[in-house]
């Protein structure tokens, strides 16, 4: 393994941060590293909101379900899928522009995810820690109003960035055989059963809080209800009509 692969395999979510600011020049370089990610047809359908005001950060803590590290991390970024800029650029050529396509929603969501992961890797290479905040989608309309996001722009997730103040264990991943398939899809039951045992042992022995659970049990609450059922109506109202 080279150093890049070792770095990728050492990822942990960091939720406790030192009170030490990230230099602005470094933060800009992280964003530039994010921009170097692949982008569909060079559309670059993303915007990143750097939330620096304490009051806004406090409000986002509440909107994301009380995740206090949204406020305590050195920096907090909100990653937005942004079709406004490319749509307006295309419209400016005089073309008859079609908006609201499902493909546009997918392209923008994939684009911003690739950018965010590049930033995460760049940050970790500099000794920083990160934590993705999917709770941004708990109240996407309120977040949009707070950050003044226009039509055709929606908040996909947030990211806490800062210098780690703890050293959590690396959470195991599924066996590679479960996700890396040859020529066609294959059943995963055997791998899932093995992974349940792996996760049970992990939860029993990890440094920061033990519990009795496994992978399947941790998934159950995510699928026994209609999770974030507001998202479809919100996206349609944002101009992502999914036509």
What is the H-and-E element order? HHEHHEHHEHEHHHH
| SS content category | alpha+beta
| CATH arch. level architecture | 3-Layer(aba) Sandwich
Q: Which spans of ≥5 residues are poorly predicted at pLDDT below 50?
A: none
Q: What summary fits the major beta sheet?
A: 4 strands, antiparallel
CATH topology: NADH Oxidase
Our count of domains comes out at 1
> How much helix, percentage-wise, in residues?
40-55%
Beta-strand fraction estimate: 5-15%
Shape, principal axes of CA atoms: globular
Distance between the termini: 45 Å
Kindly state the mean pLDDT as a whole number?
Answer: 97
Let me know the CATH homologous superfamily.
Answer: NADH Oxidase
- Order the strands across the largest sheet as they lie in space: 1-2-4-3
Q: Helices and strands in order, then pairings?
A:
Blueprint: H1 3-9, H2 24-35, E1 46-51, H3 54-63, H4 69-72, E2 75-82, H5 84-91, H6 102-125, E3 129-133, H7 140-147, E4 153-162, H8 176-179, H9 189-205, H10 215-223, H11 231-237
Antiparallel strand pairs: 1-2, 2-4, 3-4
Helix pairs in contact: 2-6
Domain Nitroreductase: 9-163
Enzyme class: oxidoreductase
Pfam families: Nitroreductase (PF00881)
Describe the protein.
By secondary structure, the protein is an alpha+beta fold. It has a single domain (3-169, 226-237), classed as NADH Oxidase, CATH 3.40.109.10. The protein has 11 helices and 4 strands; from the N terminus they run ααβααβααβαβαααα. It has helices at residues 3-9, 24-35, 54-63, 69-72, 84-91, 102-125, 140-147, 176-179, 189-205, 215-223, 231-237, and strands at residues 46-51, 75-82, 129-133, 153-162. A 4-stranded antiparallel sheet has the order 1-2-4-3, sandwiched between helices. The radius of gyration is 20 Å and the shape is globular. The mean pLDDT is 97.
């Amino acid at each position: 393994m080279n150093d890049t692969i070792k770095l990728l395999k050492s990822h942990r979510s960091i939720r406790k941060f030192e009170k030490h600011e990230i230099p602005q020049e470094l933060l800009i370089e992280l964003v530039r590293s994010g921009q170097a990610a692949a982008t569909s047809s060079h559309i670059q359908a993303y915007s990143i909101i750097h939330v620096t005001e304490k009051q806004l950060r406090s409000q986002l803590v509440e909107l994301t379900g009380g995740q206090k590290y949204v406020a305590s991390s050195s920096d907090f970024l909100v990653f937005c899928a942004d079709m406004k800029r490319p749509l307006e650029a295309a419209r400016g050529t005089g073309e008859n522009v079609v908006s609201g396509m499902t493909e546009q929603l997918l392209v923008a969501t994939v684009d911003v995810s690739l950018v965010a992961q590049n930033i995460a890797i760049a940050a970790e290479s500099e000794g920083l820690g990160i934590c993705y905040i999917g709770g941004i989608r708990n109240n996407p309309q309120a977040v949009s109003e707070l950050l003044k996001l226009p039509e055709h722009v929606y908040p996909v997730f947030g990211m806490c960035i800062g210098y780690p103040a703890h050293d959590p264990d690396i959470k195991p991943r599924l066996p590679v055989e479960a996700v890396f398939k040859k020529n066609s899809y294959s059943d995963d039951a055997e791998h899932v059963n093995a992974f349940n045992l792996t996760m049970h042992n992990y939860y029993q022995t990890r440094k920061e809080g033990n519990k009795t659970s496994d992978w399947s049990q941790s998934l159950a609450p995510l699928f026994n209800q209609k999770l974030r059922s507001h998202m479809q109506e919100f996206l349609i109202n944002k101009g992502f009509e999914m036509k």
